[in-house]
Every structure is written in C-alpha cells, then in structure tokens.
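Reviewers of the previous submission asked for a worked example of the structure-prediction workflow described in the proposal, so we include one complete record here. The input consisted solely of the amino acid sequence. No template or homolog information was supplied to the procedure at any stage.
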Amino acid sequence: MGPALEVADVFRRHGEAFRRARAGHLGCVERRVMGAITACRTAVLGGHVEQCDDCGATRIAYNSCRNRHCPKCQGVARAQWLVERQAELLPVPYFHVVFTLPVLAGEIAFQNKAIVYAILFRSAAETLSTIAADPKHLGAQLGITAVLHTWGQTLQHHPHVHCVVPGGGPSLDGTRWIACRPGFFLPVRVLSRLFRRLFLQGLENAFNAGKLGFFGDLAVLADPAAFTKRLEQLRRIDWVVYAKPPFGGPEQVLAYLGRYTHRVAIANSRLISLCDGKVSFSWKDYRQNSKVKVMTLNAEEFIRRFLLHSLPDGFHRIRHYGFLANGGRSDKLALCRQLLALRSAWLDRQVVADPPIIKEDIPVCPRCGGRMRRIDVVPPACERARPFRCDTS
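From that input alone, the workflow returned the following structure tokens.
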C-alpha cells in the first residue's frame, strides 16, 4: 500500500498550473497557504536527524510548516490548546450552539472576510449573552468559546460559528449560580431573531462607515439603494441557529472541543484518489442522515474550494466571551467555582494534574518502539524556496 494521499500532493501536482491560470487574482494569503502546505515536512523547510536510544536507528524528521490551514499541523496545536483549556472547565453540562449565515450574507462575508467574520462572532456572542441575561429565559452571565468554520462538507463557502457554552452561569448580581433546565439551554427561535437583527445592524454600520468592498457579481451592492434592498431580503428570511443536545460535563468537553477548534477545510483522511487531474474525496450528506458519499472534482476546482477558507493574516478564529473572556478570566472562573461550591480537593487536582502527553513531543522509533533523540540539524534545502514569502510574480 502506498503512502496516504494528502492535500499537499494535489498542490504539488497541480498547484503551479492553478497559479498560472489565476495570475493576478490569487492573493498573498492564498499563495502562502499553498506554499506552506506543499513544503510541510519536506527538505525545503529543513529539520533534524533523530537516533533511537535502543537500536541506534536514524531517520530525518523534517520541520512542519505550522500554517493553521495545513491538515498535518493541527494535531499538536490542538492538544496544546486543550491542555490550556483543561483548568477552565466547570463540572456542569455543556451546550453547543451553531450560528449560520444565509447565502445572501455569506456572499458579502467572502469578499469582506475580516470585517464580516468579526461581525458574525460579535453577533453570535451578544445574542447568547443578551438572551441568557434576560430573567425570562435564564438571568445569568455566560461563558462562551466560539470557533469559526467557513466550509461545508463539499468545501463550498458556508460560514458559521460553533459556540460551546457551560449550562448556566453566575446571576447578574454575582451572588449565586443559575443552572439551565435539564436538557434545555435557550430558545433557538428567539436566538435566531436577535442574531439576525444584530448581524444586519453590524453589517449596515460597516457599510455606512465605508468598510465594505464589493467586486464582480456583487459590485452593484456598492450602491446604497441596492445594499438596502439586500438587507431587506435578509430580514425577510429565517436564519438558522441550531442548539445541539447537551453533551455532559468536563469529561466529555475536551474531546468534543478538539473536534472543532483546529479543524481545517478538509482532512487528509477524507481524500480517496488523485487521478487524471481529478480529486475524489468522501463527504457526509446531512440531508440524508449523514450518508457518506464520494465527490470528484477537477484538481483546479478542488484547490479553488480549499483556498476559499483561507483566513486573513492575524484573524483569530477561536474567541472567548463572557466569563471566559481574556480579561479577568481567572477571577471570573474562581467566582464560578465558588458559586458551584466545588470541593477544594477537586480544585487541587485540576491545578497539580500533569497535562496529557502529546505523542508528537516524544518521537518513537518505527523499528523497535524506543525513544528517538535529536542528534543533528538538517538545514533547509533552499533558502529561497521557503514558502512564507509573498511572491506575486
């Protein structure tokens, strides 16, 4: 059996033709993504020589690109992030709420990623916080971890935010813990309507401030009358907010979060074949009870769809709100634990517990299973071949 197919293989075989065909239309971010994934764990980036302590076997381990869009580089980043989150978990049920943009809004988001994705984050977080603070629904402060995904199963542009939320929070005066009703978080219809209003208000504000750009088929939206008409169309349709059933307490939360936080548009494991310029991959059809199907695309179309999901430089796709926001998080979590009347022994275990071992931190010899140690450095094969520069030529 040959080596498993990777996105990098598609880029290596068809990336240059894709670049030539789209010369002048391919941005710096997309070029860097392609270059990084292609060079990942190859001689281009250099690496080091490892030797087994037990049998003396040696091998070269090439460096990872560490690009956040690379399917091969998310495992360690995910594990380290989850270790950091471990101490923040509370012994309560957790809920998962998904906020999705309709197509007419998603089109605008694609041409204005940084601005509109930020509005999506803010609108989702404010929606949850506002409805939860209403005594008619919960009357509590929430903690929210939000993760942006921009793809569907067939790699089309489908922006949505996954929010993982503890099932309750401190009362508005901070004197007691208020828990959700068993198995129920907040009414999705109420969430949907407020989310729509907040997002469209944020979008309108961005337009009025001159922060939105429109190109190609959307160029007409630069006209205020056309943009207002698009807003009216969006106000007349239902927006999808989906609340999944609760998935237990802290024992399940880390594994659940790990499925969403560092996911990329498509995992290498979903790729089936690359033959005659066509890429085949598996996908789940959620309209048919998650039935697994196979889709085949021309390599150029596959690359185009993959690059749809490149994020702007510096854009944070994981964000925290409420009592999990970065400012004052420790103090707010301490209040939550106090209100939950946690046993001091449980707290001590969370503080002193050893973090889980990340397999990639301790390389294992493929021959005997012994520990591999670094004994030498392998310089990059070609300094000018590094994939992180933006060369638009």
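Confidence is low (pLDDT under 50) at residues 343-360. We consider this example representative of the routine output the project will generate in years two and three.
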